[in-house]
Design a protein that fits this description.
The chain is an alpha+beta fold. The chain has helices at residues 2-76, 78-83, 87-103, 139-147, 188-197, 231-244, 290-375, 381-408, 420-437, 458-474, 530-540, and strands spanning 108-115, 120-125, 151-155, 162-171, 176-185, 201-207, 254-259, 262-267, 271-273, 279-288, 416-419, 441-444, 451-454, 482-490, 493-500, 545-555, 558-570. It starts with a helix and ends in an 8-residue tail after the last strand. InterPro entries: HATPase_C_sf (IPR036890), HATPase_dom (IPR003594), His_kinase_dom (IPR005467), HisK_dim/P_dom (IPR003661), HisK_dim/P_sf (IPR036097), Sig_transdc_His_kin-like_C (IPR004358).
Amino acid sequence: MIKTIEGNKNRIITVTFILLFGMFCFFSLADLHKRMSDYRFFATKINAIIQKTYVSETSYLNLRMINYVTAIIDERGVTNLIKDRDRSGLKKIFDPVYWDFAKRFVPVISLVIVDSEQHILYQKLDTALKMHATGLKSTTLEAAIKDRKPAYGFETDAFPLHYSISVPVLDKTTNRVAGAIEVGINPAWFHFKLRWFLDNIKTAIVVKNKSLDQETAYSSLPDEYAFIVNQDLRKNDIRFFESILRRIIMSKDILDLKVGDRYYIISTSPLLLTHHKEEAGRLLVAYDMTEFRNRQWGYIYVWLIFFASTACLMLLVSFIGFRKYERIITDQGKKLAHRSKQCALGEMLSYIGHQWRQPLNTLSLTVQNIELQNRLGKLDGPMLEKQVALANRNIEYLTQVIEDWRSLLISGTTRQVIDLADSVNRAIGIVAPALESCRIHVDNRITGSTKTLGFVNDLVQLTVNILLNAKDALATREGARIIQLSTSEEGDIVTVTFQDSGGGIPERLLEKVFEAYLTTKDDLAGTGLGLYLCRQIAENLDSGKVWAENREFEVDGTRLFGACISLQFKKLSEGVPV
């Protein structure tokens, strides 16, 4: 019984924890997938915001600068000054304009005015600006003069990388291009504008040769406007991107990189295009996602803690609960076994009465015979001794009957060596009168000396229960009433079969006959505990088990059919100390 409980307990615990672990893995993976999806969604969203901000601010800058320069051209008569090549007049107008850009928070680094032949009439450069070439070559100026409309884009020829906006100056009387005005803007303006909308970002510019642009911090702006370019911040950002530049794949719009103990998404989407839509470089933006990522992983850690706590709690509940379950089942088993014996007392008394009836009759006749012989004066010594000896034999028989039934009710507390053949013979002797009264023949083929370890009277009790159960099935049976007992051995495993000719057990009950309170007796005389007690006894034996089946067997050439109860246990090898 304990083995069964232990097996069921282990199976329940195993299945419970497998289901718990499976559910945890499923929900954890689902939650992890969702949070990683959220992470990718926000990364894509942030990249889209960066790209949209860059494009919209660039378009706004173009519109703002073109309108401002056009207004100056119209209001100050710049067309006539260019036609007259009046350099002093242009200087008088555009020197204040150059410094006015700073007040508008636009870091202009150059202001150039040319005629229609691109001869320089006015040029104002940032004092910190280093020219790459002596001559002026600007694609936006060429495009503005040629196409007669504003042109803009990044330039890298004469100056370091800068953003150029060129506005044509049209002569309204002749409808010809008199010249053009080019405004060069420090790319630091793009860093400034992105930081205006986004926090926790780092920015840098990569030029076409995949090297970081180190010159975008130049500016001679007044101190009150120097925050636009913020040279210290620019240097820190450049050092940051220098450490990861080799890890950045320009073909990808978004990258997820770990730098130190921080996590960043790197956006390479903002392209720095020339007027001819050629790539002059890229604006790299690193957005710090550490806090967001830690929050996402924090939920996963909560899941792990929850699972560990739940597993420990279930383990504790299982340990305490099943320990209590074992005690309850064990106590219940003892109560059932005790009740089985109590229920058997009434039936046992009827068997004892049946067995005592004949010896008591013989005893009564013996006493009457002694009294009669004494009255007739024929009672002599030999006659008396003969009658006393007959009475003693009957008294010994009655005593033996009582001892046999009393020993059957004794429960052992320690395991000891028990003999199969001896136990079976004792059991048959106990129930023999009851079987004979029902004209049941017992074909006992169990011989030899087969021993095992068990509690005292276990095999006797088991055999009695099976024989009485078979008697009830055979009592009303027409034809041959036979119970056949036999054994077979395979290695050290012994199988004992109790076969009767009672017609078998209904198939629907075949697997349930060893359950408590299950009975097939129609007269409600059965307790349903006989075979249940047999299973308990079998499980107390070494490697013991019991099962039931219906099958045919042969006795003296006659084929019979009935229930077969099989008992299996491990025999005790000879010479093994107990």
